[in-house]
Each structure stands twice: as structure tokens, then as C-alpha cells.
Amino acid sequence: MTRSSLKGPYVDPRVLKKVEGRKPSETGVIKTWSRACQIAPEMVGFTFGVHNGRDHIEVFVTEDMVGHRLGEFALTRKFVRHGGKMQKDLESKQKETEIAAAKAAKGGTDSKK
Fold first, then answer.
1. Strand 29-32 relative to strand 56-60, pairing
2. Beta bridge partners of 49
3. Three-class secondary structure of residue 89 per DSSP
4. Which of 44, 42, 36 is nearest to 64 (CA)?
5. How far is the C-alpha of 22 from the C-alpha of 25, rounded, in Å?
6. How far is residue 26 CA from its own chain's centroid?
7. Residue 107 pLDDT more than 90?
8. Contact 46, 62 (CB under 8 A)
């Protein structure tokens, strides 16, 4: 459920305090543990180090991110690809076909000269 519009967006006052009166080019990474903090227009251009439970992930804030939460851009789980031996075999075959196609294309361009 979303936050009530009467209350307004939740922006952590500590994060706003770190952003106020500074220029994005002069400040480095601003570390924060406040993943629930919404991105305000004042934060555009800054780089935040958002904590994911283990370390800080650098998030560069753009205009498209305004209204989203900082935690949305610092994932807490590491994705390990699906598959296994069968998936590796499929990927190696695909890579071999790409290499063969590249060699054929390269050989085709040399014969035209």
C-alpha cells in the first residue's frame, strides 16, 4: 500500500541535510542506510552509496528516478543464473556458432577486396 498523499513523500531528513547547499560535482558518494527514503528532485545528479545489507552500492540519481525509493536501485540478493551443466553446454554451442559466423563474415569481406 502506498503512503497517504496527505502525509507527503518520505524523505529522510538526514539525507536531505547532506544534499542541501552542495553541488553534485563537488561531493563524492553520500553513504546512506535509508533505503526507504524517496528520491526528491533536489537529489538529482548526486551519487548515493545505498546499503544493501552487506556493502554500499553506488547509485547515480537521474530525473527518471524521482519518486522512487533508494532501495529499489540497490538489490539485496545476488542473482545466480539458472541452469547448470545443460545451460553451460547450450551457451558454449551458441558462442561457437557466433565465432564461426564472425569468421565467415570476416572471410567474406576479405574475398571482396
1. unpaired
2. 31, 58
3. helix
4. 44
5. 9
6. 22
7. no
8. no
One-letter identity of residue 78: K
Cell numbers that stand for 77 in this block: 540478493
Ranges of H-type helices in the chain: 13-19, 85-112
User: What would the pLDDT profile of 43-94 be if each residue is shown by its tens digit?
Assistant: 999 999 999 999 999 999 999 999 999 999 999 998 877 777 888 888 889 9
Give me the residue spans of the domains in the chain: 13-73, 80-113
CATH number of 13-73: 3.30.860.10
**What letter would DSSP give residue 52?**
-
Closest C-alpha to 37, from 28, 24, 46: 46
Is the pTM higher than 0.70? The answer reads no
Instruction: Give the Cα-Cα-Cα angle 16, 19, 33 (nearest 5 degrees).
Output: 60
